[in-house]
Amino acid sequence: MGTGRRVFEFLKMASIAHAKWDYEVSMSILKQRKKMWILFAMLLPILVVAFVDAGDMLGSKTAYAPAFYSTGIFLISIAIGLCAGLITGCIGAGGGFIITPALMAAGVKGILAVGTDLFHIFAKAIMGTAVHKKLGNVSVKLAIAFLVGSAGGTFIGGAINKGLYDYDPNLSEAFISLIYAVLLGFLGFYALADFLKSRKSKDTGDAHGGGSGMTSLSLKVQNINIPPAIRFDEDYIPGGRKISGVIVALGGVVVGLMAAIMGVGGGFITFPMFVYVFGISSMTTVGTDILQIIFTAGLAATTQYAIYGYVFYSLAMGMLLGSLIGIQIGALTTKVVKGIHIRGFYAVSILAGFINRAATLPKKLVDLEVINWPKPVVNGIESAGNVIFWIVVAAFAVWVISKFVANIGVLRGEDDYAKPVFVKEEA
User: What is the tally of structural domains in the chain?
Assistant: First the structure.
């Protein structure tokens, strides 16, 4: 139980860190008129094409363009981005985890969903991140070691996904669904238990603290003497601290691997890894995390997916447009809802993603001839998982938007952009 709880806290911090980055880059885009005009210029040709059915295009297992796209799937991509933005903005965690499952639930092949999500993250990072404000905190040596590792990880992860897809598209779908089912199931059930415990203890969920000091694990990691040693945090600790560059590079491999397999950009795991495993200060971690998201997502999206035709550009831009709207509405809504309700929706939204991916596995296993269940049964399970997922996501979206509309008079008087409740700065 103790180990499971620590893993849950690690994953929750990872989810929160990614949501915080997503919030900051989205607000950076929204606040600057020039960036909005650039976004509009990027969207215009895609909007024109998206509203004309393209019909059948060059497409097969080695497609260099999606086999089919239509106005409907483009509108769905905006809705997916909107819902992910609402979850990120209102809950402060978890929004990025539903994009790939949602695309797959909408009928996009898993490898296209992963590549498209990575490209969406990369486009948002390039447009919105305020790198100039944070890069002063980057340790160049740490960044180089980590990025070398993450580059290797993206090539490994991309090779795994492409290899599985070339061997059997059903195997690729099953693999991606299994990875998401395990991750979201673990995180979701612990989050639900955390929510129920909070209700019993009368914890409102409105305050979130937590230390970020050295853990026993980080002390052990820093004591591993494998050259070359990298010294860091000299500005915050007399003499600084040191860690093996090999350990940092191996951490980068893990992040790059997860990013390329799941399509989540890597930032979701970098923050807790740096702080709780490596023992690096939060200030240095923030700058390095921003840099690595751009590098890892960009490298994975372009070299592992885009050049092989596994990026659906119109959907990526549709998700970007929807998420910018959703994250603003969600962040403002945190001013008028109770933190305990937000914590509950966090658990439910993660579990909805788990149910959706887990429900697809029986059908994939039948297609792969691993199990022999009746087709009507596995089709029914998959359909039920899809229905549950879309009902939960739609209910959340309706709840947040209704709260926003009902309190628009109160929110109109707010001059500053709201911060999601889960991503408030720690004391």
Answer: 1
Residues 92, 421 contacting (CB under 8 angstroms): yes
- At 231, which helix (H) or strand (E)? strand 229-232
Q: How far apart are CA 190 and CA 347, in angstroms?
A: 8
Q: Are strands 229-232 and 241-244 parallel, antiparallel or unpaired?
A: antiparallel
Neighbours of 91 (CB within 10 A): 30
Give yes or no for a contact between 311 and 115, defined as CB atoms under 8 angstroms apart.
yes
- Is-contact 353 184, C-beta < 8 A? yes
Residue 332 domain boundaries: 2-423
**Distance (Å, whole) CA 251 – CA 217:** 14
Q: Report whether 353 contacts 264 (CB < 8 A).
A: no
The secondary structure of 76-102 as a DSSP string is: HHHHHHHHHHHHHHHHSSSGGGGHHHH
CA distance 118 to 302: 9
Distance between CA atoms of 145 and 354, rounded to whole angstroms? 34
- Claim: this prediction has a pTM higher than 0.90: no
427 residues of the chain, pLDDT tens digit each? 566 667 667 667 777 777 777 777 777 777 777 666 766 666 666 555 555 544 444 334 444 444 446 677 888 889 999 988 888 877 766 677 788 888 888 888 889 899 999 888 888 877 765 554 555 567 788 888 999 999 999 999 999 999 999 999 889 999 999 999 988 888 888 778 877 877 776 555 444 444 445 678 888 899 998 888 988 877 777 778 889 999 999 999 998 998 899 887 666 677 778 887 888 877 777 777 777 888 888 889 888 898 888 888 888 888 888 888 888 888 888 777 766 677 777 788 888 889 999 999 999 999 898 889 999 999 999 999 999 999 988 888 888 888 888 887 776 665 455 566 555 444 3
**Residue 336 and residue 403: Cα distance in Å, rounded?**
8
